[in-house]
Amino acid sequence: MGIYFSHLFKYFKFVSMSISFNTVTRFSQIVAIILFIVVFAVGFYIGQYSVIPVPAVSTTITAHTPAVSTGPVVNAVTFACTQPAGSFISSIFYRDAVTISLSDGRTLTLPHALSADGARYANADESFVFWNKGNTAFVTENGTTTWSGCVVK
User: Do 111 and 122 contact (CB within 8 A), yes or no?
Assistant: First the structure.
């Protein structure tokens, strides 16, 4: 059968014609470029006239302090502090808040606040912040560290 096809090709003089499927011809390059331009132009035209409305986004950031809700007690710890000398902080930890009692007589319940490291609890204006990481804690009031060197008793 292979002999028959070779005679057929010779009869129609196809032997001198070379077909190569591995090379890109100049014609196929031009066709690909024209198709790319047509698809791009159609996409641009459709995109220009089919605009999806996007709702306006507020750029105003407002501080939000969630309501302090004390649920079941997670942990209760007392920290002994070196500053002020001989002071301590008694703390009761809840899921989203902490109640601290300072040795100077103040008691505060603070909601959990955003922190990159450790646990941070702060009042609404962040004038009073209680930090806790592992066995240590400290308090800042109006940006100044007032209770430091606090370690679990």
Answer: yes
> Which of 141, 137, 122, 106 shows the shortest CA–CA distance to 66?
122
**Interatomic CA distance for residues 38 and 57, integer angstroms:** 35
pLDDT at res. 64: 42
Query: Which of 3-17, 32-46, 97-111, 137-151 is least confident?
Result: 3-17
For residue 65, give the 3-state DSSP assignment: coil
In the chain the domains, ranked by start, together with CATH numbers, are 2-49 (no CATH), 75-152 (2.40.128.200)
pTM of the model: 0.55
Instruction: Give the single-character DSSP code of 67.
Output: P
Contact 65, 124 (CB under 8 A): yes
Structure tokens at 113: 């606040």
